[in-house]
Amino acid sequence: MGGMSGFDLVIRGGRVATASDTFDCDVGIRDGRIVALGHDLGAAGEVIDATGRLVLPGGIDSHVHFAQPSGPGVVMADDFESGTRSAAFGGNTTVLPFCLQEKGQSLREAVRLYHAKAEGRCYIDVAFHLIVADPTPQVLGQELPALIKDGYSSFKVFMTYEGLALSDREILEVMAVARETGAIVMVHAENYDAIRFLTDRLERLGQTTPRFHATSRPIPVEREATHRAISLAELVDVPVVIVHVSNREAMEEIRRAQAKGLKVHGETCPQYLMLTEADLDGLGMEGAKYVCSPPPRDPASQQACWEGLQQGVFSLFSSDHCPFRYDDPEGKLTPKGRTSFRWVPNGIPGVATRLPILFSEGVVKDRIDLNRFVALTSTNHAKTYGLYPRKGTIAIGTDADIAIWDPQRKVTITHDLLHDGSDYTPYEGLEVTGWPMLTMVRGRVVMRDGELVGTADHGSFLARSA
Ligand code: URP
Ligand code: ZN
Ligand code: ZN
Questions:
Q1: 3-56+390-452 CATH
Q2: What are the extents of the domains in the chain?
Q3: Which of 271, 291, 423, 463 has its CA 20 to 30 A from that of 389?
Q4: Which pLDDT band holds residue 466 (cuts at 50, 70, 90)?
Q5: How far apart are the C-alpha atoms of 99 and 142, rounded to whole Å?
Q6: Does residue 332 have its Cβ closer than 6 Å to ligand 1?
Q7: pLDDT in tens, 207-222
Q8: pTM above 0.70, yes or no
Q9: Residue nearest (by alpha carbon) to ligand 1 atom 5
Q10: Which ligand is located closest to the Cα atom of residue 294?
């Protein structure tokens, strides 16, 4: 094998795992693609020794936010350069950030703007989801169908957040377009009116520390919206992803829908396995570091999220990386000069820690096997969002998007290992076993032994099939 000219690169001696199989073999790469799996592959321009290492499909994180406007006086901590860099350090080879339409803005114009922000500034490959915040007749009738044809085949709708929340009627209109065009709808499921009611009441009582962020959006707020989102999707028969699920009741809503045969996918995130609302309780504003929505819950909810991952209710494990700096006038500490949890920007960083956390807490601690790890962190993302089989597996003909892991390496997570634009990690001091040592995108090494070796012009934009 290898032909006259051999391979550009061979990864030798590693243990390869996909979503279905684990096997010892070498990987031959030519022109950015995997062209051979076997032994004694022959001549190669470069050989990477993977003895004692795992050779995995690169992580695909299908839920990240980069360079997203977040309201006056607040700035997201990562742009495309720092966000994709941090992703590469965390063993990822593709990310799917959001392209946010603002009220009054054309969706086309929003897409153009995000491409301009990303152009030449990505270390790894990128595909965009669209956030539909203003479903005008023009957007529903022309822009959305045209964009889906152009490869933007998934979009997110919000049931909460000022300026983003859609009415049930609007959600149905968006879902109907997805149904017509073969797209998939991601739903942020929290009840907007209930959150506003509870938040106003807490403020009247002077209960405004970050801790009360969780009190303002308790489990019924999420469960009700999850049920409603699923019901709306059932009405128009469209596939949906319920994103960032935090607790058992919402998980059980998804399980019930799946048992009925509805096309409902579930996603959870590291924060719902590792954090609880007690983390919001830090001294002063420290708790703001953990403010995200839905909020982290309690140990029983963490256990429910593990069960969702183990039993397949959740097919997607994403970071929901949505980074803001902490000690920064444009960050979480003194949002707009105020201190109520109401003004703390929602979201936490996590694109670099997603994979080590699930590997260590899941695979090493025997909660999930290695193949489920690959499915949850790579393969299922590619399948759900129209990138498979080009992305998400190790097979002949696929892009050579690979992460090489040392499964035994013990690392204490510190912010300086993550190379993002934030000034903290919610997981500072967490000890993990297993760490990505090398990340390769289409055959080119981007990160090796904790050093960035790629360039920000390598990442390419991926159009996706519906
Ligand atoms: O708090 C969160 N999750 N912020 C990110 C935006 C979103 O809703 O996914
Ligand atoms: Zn959301
Ligand atoms: Zn998000």
A1: 2.30.40.10
A2: 3-56+390-452, 59-370
A3: 271
A4: confident
A5: 17
A6: no
A7: 999 999 999 999 999 9
A8: yes
A9: 347
A10: 1
